[in-house]
Amino acid sequence: MSTFAERIISFNESLEFTGTLPEGIRIMNPFKESPVALQSSSTFYRKYYDDELPRHLILGINPGRFGSGFTGISFTDPKRLVTNCQIDFPGPMTHEPSSEYIYDMIKAFGGVEEFYQQFYIHSICPLGFTIMGENGKETNYNYYDNKALLKAVYPFIVKNIRTQIAMGFETDVCFCFGTGKNEAFFRKLNEEHHFFKKIVALEHPRYIMQYKSKLKQEYIAKYLQAFSEK
Question: pTM to 2 decimals?
Answer without folding.
Answer: 0.94
